[in-house]
C-alpha cells in the first residue's frame, strides 16, 4: 500500500494543478512558471523586504515579503478559504530565506492558531507551513507550543497587542538548541516576542524569528522600529 497522501496535495492537484493555473488569479500558466504556480503578474506582486529584517519589540525578525498584493492574498487564502495547500508554497519561500540567510537551527516551531480559529477553519495553517519547511530544510519540527483562546490581534490597536498576548502561549514540553519560530505576518511583533519568551523559558538557547510577510508600520513614540518594512525593494 502506498504512502498516504496529504489532503492539501489532493485538493491542489484537482482544483489548481501545479504548473497549469496560477495559485492567486487562476490564470493558465506556461511551463516556466510551474515551480511556484504563479503567473508573471502575480509573481511581480511579491515585494521583498529590504535587507530581509525588521525589529519589532525586542526581536529582530527576518521577513521575506511585504504584506501587500500577492503576499497578502497568499496569507488570506490559506487562512480563510478553501486553499490550505498554499501553505506548502509559503513554507517553501520561508525555507529559501532560511538557507539564504545561512541560519542554523536545531528545531523549528510555529505560532499556533487559537483553538477557536482551528475549529472554524478546520486546520492550523502555520502547522502546515512548518511541516513543509521542516521537510525541505531537515530541521526537526517541534509542536510543543500552543495557544489559549483570546481576543484576536487584528481586533486590537498596536499599543494593546503586547498586553493582549500576555500569557496566551504555553508549552507542552521542552525545546533545545537554536529554535526558529515561523509565522505568517509580523506587525507589532507582540506575538513573536511572547512565543520567543516561552520557547526560551522551556529550554531553548536561542530563537530566530522568520515570517512570510511584514506589515508596513511607521515608527511611533512607544515602539522604535530600527529597520522599517516601508523601506523595501522589488523582489
Structural descriptors:
235 residues, alpha/beta, Rossmann fold, 2 domains, 6-stranded mixed beta sheet, two-stranded antiparallel ribbon, 34% helix, disordered C terminus
Number of helices: 8
Order of strands, widest sheet = 1-2-8-7-3-4
Number of strands: 8
Terminal CA distance: 43 Å
Spans with pLDDT under 50 lasting ≥5 residues?
Answer: 153-157, 218-235
CATH class designation of the largest domain:
Alpha Beta
Proper CATH architecture of the largest domain: 3-Layer(aba) Sandwich
Order of helices and strands: HHEEHHEHHEEHEEHE
Percent range for helical residues?
25-40%
Strand content: 15-25%
Query: How would you sum up the major sheet?
Result: 6 strands, mixed
List strands and helices in order, with pairings:
Layout: H1 7-15, H2 40-43, E1 53-56, E2 59-66, H3 69-80, H4 86-100, E3 107-110, H5 115-121, H6 125-137, E4 140-141, E5 145-147, H7 158-164, E6 169-171, E7 178-186, H8 190-201, E8 206-214
Parallel strand pairs: 2-8, 3-4, 3-7, 7-8
Antiparallel strand pairs: 1-2, 5-6
Helix pairs in contact: 4-6
Explain what you see.
This protein is an alpha/beta fold and 235 residues long. The protein folds into 2 domains: 1-43, no CATH class; 47-214, Rossmann fold. The protein is 34% helix and 18% strand. It is built from 8 helices and 8 strands, in the order ααββααβααββαββαβ. The strands form 2 sheets. It has a 6-stranded mixed β-sheet, with helices on both faces. A hairpin with a 2-residue loop joins β1 (53-56) and β2 (59-66). α4 packs across α6 (125-137). The protein is globular, with a radius of gyration of 17 Å. Mean pLDDT is 80; it is low at 153-157 and 218-235.
